[in-house]
Amino acid sequence: MRLGRIMGVDLYLNAFFLALLGLFLVAGILGKGLVAFAVVLVHELAHVACARYLGVPVNEVELLPFGGVTRMGSELVLDPVKEVYVAAAGPLCNVVMVLLGLAMKNYGLWHDELGPFFLQCNLLIAAFNLLPALPLDGGRVYRAGLAGRMSIKEATYRAATLGQVFAVAVVLLGSLGLLFGFTGLDILFTGLFLFFAATRERGMAPYLFMGQLAGKKGEILRAGVLPVQSLIALEDVPLGKIVKPFLPQKFHLVLVLDRQWQYKGFLTETQIIDGLLNHGVDLPVGRLPLQPL
User: Fold this and answer.
1) By C-alpha distance, which of 236, 248, 290 is closest to 268?
2) pTM as predicted
3) Which residues in the chain belong to E strands, given as ranges?
4) Which domains does the chain have, with CATH numbers?
5) Each residue of 86-134: pLDDT tens digit?
6) Omega of the bond prior to 289 within 30 degrees of 0, cis?
7) pLDDT digits (tens, 9 = 90+) for 214-243
8) How many Cα atoms occupy the beta-carbon half-sphere of 292 within 13 Å?
């Protein structure tokens, strides 16, 4: 559901969050629901502010029960340092709000029921988002760390799989809590949505990888200088296998050998990507025009 625009960004309320607010209404604690809504909103606006400061375009914000999704330009995922900064801005903002809440309590600006819930909500969202699982903020930091050692596709698969595992654990704990009466439906809803969101992130991995390949020329133009990573491949290896170990923030040179381990030539990353886009993933690398050293 579209709520409007804030800071020039379209704001949406996810159906799961809307259902959660409905549960608060039915339970007669709508005030707590509105506090949770405000905490999640400020958390996401912190991501927006940090992204804009770093020059990353922001498309829209969707509020979820455990935080939200701030949809930004795909170049953020391809810059691990920026992704870490933007991801960390949300939980850091929650910590700041906890400190502000404690300061307000010390100055007498306090509500005996909503005040403690405000602190609890901030701490819960900050702690939950630090889990190393997509789509949580900790998962984005974890993926950024992995991106220095493997392709963005494989890094996304790992972080999203952890998200699915955590989601199943939350659903199981929420179901037990509901059965024995010490939790409500909110925990179960959160686990279900976390699984849905992690599965969606996993499905985006191939597109992120293609974006990484297609955007490498622009990456070189922006950086001016990139470190070189050398690879060796046999001439009959398909291009689809060659590009799998390609990493962001590095430029790759591939030395091609025949089956007798004799050197045949080399290819740059841009030549391999162009060959893949023009001829497909199954073309043997030795079929491309090789360059002598």
Assistant:
1) 290
2) 0.81
3) 2-6, 9-13, 58-64, 67-72, 228-234, 251-257, 263-268
4) 2-130 (no CATH), 227-287 (3.10.580.10)
5) 999 999 999 999 999 999 988 888 888 889 999 999 999 999 999 999 9
6) no
7) 777 677 777 678 888 899 999 999 998 998
8) 0
